[in-house]
Amino acid sequence: MKSVSIEIILAVVVGVAAWAIVVLSNSADPDAEATTVPVASQPVRDAPGGGSFAQSDVADAHWPIFRGDQALRGVAKGNLGNAFKLIWVFHTDGPIKSSVAVGDGKVFVASADSNVYALNLLDGKRLWTFPTSGAIKAPPILLDGTVVVGSTDSHLYAINAETGAEKWKYLAAGQILGSANRLRIADGQTRIIFGSYDKKLHCVNAADGKGLWTYETEDYINGAPAVADGKAFFGNCKGIVYVINIAKGALMRTIEVGAPVVVSPAVVGRTSESSVEPRAYIGHYNNEVVCVDLSAGKILWRYDEMDGPVFSSPAVTDDYVVFGSQDEYVHCIDRKTGKRVWVFKTGGNVDSSPVVCGDKVVVGSDDGRLYLLRLSDGGELWSYEIGQAITASPAVAGNAIIVGSEDGTVYAFGPK
Fold first, then answer.
1. End-to-end Cα spacing for the chain
2. What is the CATH number of the domain that holds 336?
3. What is the mean pLDDT of residues 299-321?
4. What is the pTM of this model?
């Protein structure tokens, strides 16, 4: 493997922060004033001339967390058609690098203009704005009526999803660049877990934001932790994958993958085949995706048929692992063997994390296009030219596809 200087790693990570992770400390900031600004005092950014979804298209729309579920598998329920039309847009004043969250009839989006926005899912109208003191590159999550999101101002915020009022905030030791995750443990308490540039994985109480524990690693954590079977799984810039018991904050295992990890893993647990143990699928900086047996602590296969690093979190189905690379291709490989199934060439780096829905793949590219591909062979079914890079992961909710772009705009697509 080629060695990679920390300067190069930091430069790339800052440029592609959609998959970097949050840093938090053990203390909240009781002296800081609440930063919620009433909707009436904010400029209205309603979608000019925008359309509206049919209620039937978004009746079951639900994408509450980065990659769709706690295991970060990037798989949406239902099936998509073969072509889409633009329904509405919403403009912010900064690039959108993170995935949106969808639920309760709303879309929650974070922008590098330092604001979190709540939009009406049907027509994209702004419902409220929550400002922070720094650019936001972390995907928000929706949890029990609360939006949780990190900012580069070093706080993790909990926001009332209906009103936009601040519930609590947790002060970090450094900027927060990536998504949090959550787990409801046996005593009924919900815990929020996230990584950070202070090299720590943090766990806080979802009810009040109080710190419960931290686990310190040897380097920056640049991808959201996957959660499954009461454990958190994540990688860091030293090329180590960690397995942490969430209830205790205790290390269970480490696995070295050989190069800096700057994306989130996708974790798949036991299947109907009782011999199949939990496995993680994760890409890294030295042009590879690996499959890790989390019980045995060993790498089962490596896929290295690409000419660029991986800043795209994989989507994992029963049969396939689909991800993008900075070689400008979308790659699909066999989940069991790690062998190539197909590749699809775009006109730019593919840092966007693909989503699989039924027999379709949805993914963005730095070439400014959103693509819809066949899962079976990678054939292009439809694309839409936005014009500026799409590094964010799309959200697929109901029959809607919603994605942000580097041009600062949220685009919502519905079936033709």
1. 47
2. 2.130.10.10
3. 95
4. 0.85
